[in-house]
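Sample intake sheet
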Amino acid sequence: MDMMKLIEEGQIKKKMPDFNIGDTVKVMTKIPEGDKVRLHPFEGIVIAKNGSGIKTCFTVRKLSSGEGIERVFPLYSPMIEKIEIVSRGRVKRAKLYYLRGKVGKQAKVKAARVQAKKV
């Protein structure tokens, strides 16, 4: 069991942002096109996080032309270039699957209040 943890620790990237369910994120993924690699953004609301360790995945949902699109990303995938947090959300659920039945303004998440840091 300890050997598995050692192997996983070597594969985990250390510089992943700390985001939660309800946050709006922009995931930049690498798309190979011939001999070039292009970055493709996918921006949406994080509706779920699953797994632990190197097997952690998160699901991002966005609305495109009135149609909902969900994509599951492995957190430590080498195909993910970077993850930007666009805005923080305030939710009371661990999984936001109820957003699948909502459209337009109803599919939005309340913004979290950001507290100023004391110096």
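Comment: Residues 2-11 form the longest helix (10 residues). The first strand starts at residue 24 and ends at 33.
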